Structures are given as C-alpha cells and as structure tokens.
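Box 4.2: Ligand-aware structure prediction
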Amino acid sequence: MFQVSQLVSGYGQSMVLKGIDLSVDGAQIVAVMGRNGMGKTTLFKTLMGLLPAAQGSIQLDGTELAPLPSYRRVREGVAYVPQGRMIFPTLTVEENIRTGMRRRALSTPVPDEIYALFPVLFEMRRRRGGDLSGGQQQQLAIARALVTNPRVLLLDEPTEGIQPSIIKDIARSLLEIRKLRQLAIVVSEQVLSFTLEIADRLIVIDKGRFVHEDRRETANVETISRYLSV
Ligand SMILES: Nc1ncnc2c1ncn2[C@@H]1O[C@H](COP(=O)(O)OP(=O)(O)OP(=O)(O)O)[C@@H](O)[C@H]1O
C-alpha cells in the first residue's frame, strides 16, 4: 500500500501542500483532480523527492520514503511520468526506454511486454523521440517509467495537449497496465471524462488540500466539475 500522511511542502517559505493524506492499494487507480495551480505537480514532485517534504510521511509497503533521494525512491518502486512528458528528443525511442532500465547495455533487450502494451513504440523504436506525436511521446514516457518495475506509478496530467482519440488509447493502456502489473496508479487530471473511465476514486485538490472524494460509481460529477471550472 502507498500511504501519504499529513504531507506539507512548497517553495521557500510558501507552503503549497497543506497536509495531504492519501492511501492507495495495489491495483487501485486514484485520480487527483484540480485546476491549474492547485498543487498537483507540487504533490508529485514531493512524492518523487524532487521537492523536499517540509512535514509528513510517504510510505510504500511500510518503507518510509520521505528522507530518500529520488533515485532511491525509484528503486523502492515509485515511478513518475512528469507533466509535459520530458522525453529525450534526440535519443531514439528505444534509447529513451532504456534510460529507465537499470541494466542499460545494448545487449539487454527492452522487455517484450512493453512493446506489446505500446505497439506503436515498437514500430517507431529507431525514430527519434522528438519525431513522435504528443500522444506517442506520452506512451513513451509511460513505457520508460514501467521498465523500472514500479509498484506505484505517478502520472501528471497525461492527457494534456493530446487529441481525444489518443486519450482513449492512453486510458486503455493504463487499465491494461493495472491488470498486468497489479500496481497502484495515481494520476492528476483536469479531464473528467478520462478519469471517470479509469479511476476507482476521484479526489479534488483545491489550494493544496484534498477537499472532496468520490468513488467512481457514485461520483458527484456536478461537484467535481464545479471545482474544475471556477
Ligand atoms: N518553482 C516554483 N516556485 C514558487 N512557486 C511555485 C513553483 N512552482 C509552482 N509554484 C506555485 O505553487 C502552486 C501550485 O502549483 P502546481 O504546479 O503544483 O499546480 P498544478 O495543480 O500542478 O497546476 P498546473 O496544471 O498548472 O501545473 C501555484 O500557486 C504555483 O504558482
């Protein structure tokens, strides 16, 4: 289980996250929804160790991660797909995927499972990352995160700037990944149709606090939409 308690963090003296509590079981998908500037990226950066936590705890199956640097958190099983994807544009698709692997020797093949999940990446494996469409780059960023064999996958606004037909592909991939790997997925989003398709729980973040939570089956779409549109 991934368990975050009373997490506080921010920039300098200004605290953006004001006490976040979150528990995610294996094989569960949780969406954190909120408008621009509400703290989604700050939350992920803090979970990943790119920003230090001022207070609070981040545990994965009982191991405390908050004092650990990012690379140690990756080893413990946390993977991150950042907003804007951040793939390496001049490396090939295969090289991009390999940057996530612990054994990067050319003789170590990219696992078949990755290309089975994302056949387009197999077709494009020798092309430069920068030549891919936004949706393909998002798939590449997810593939690169998956080769670290995470138990928790964090995705920051994966649908941003991506056309609707590809958003559906990404939703399908995430459901497939959950089924295959039984891992926990936390995804930040502003697109409600996407999270209603994939998430078991929907949580609203507002000014650095979780202010509303629904299970998907009983989600109060009106309330969530109101938070997203103000
Ligand atoms: N490097 C930084 N230094 C100071 N303040 C920052 C920094 N990055 C973000 N902030 C502030 O922290 C708050 C939360 O930003 P954050 O990026 O976490 O929001 P978000 O919900 O992810 O929105 P977006 O989708 O726009 O990224 C905002 O008020 C923002 O201005």
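In the box above, the bound molecule is adenosine-5'-triphosphate. Residues 164-181 form the longest helix (18 residues).
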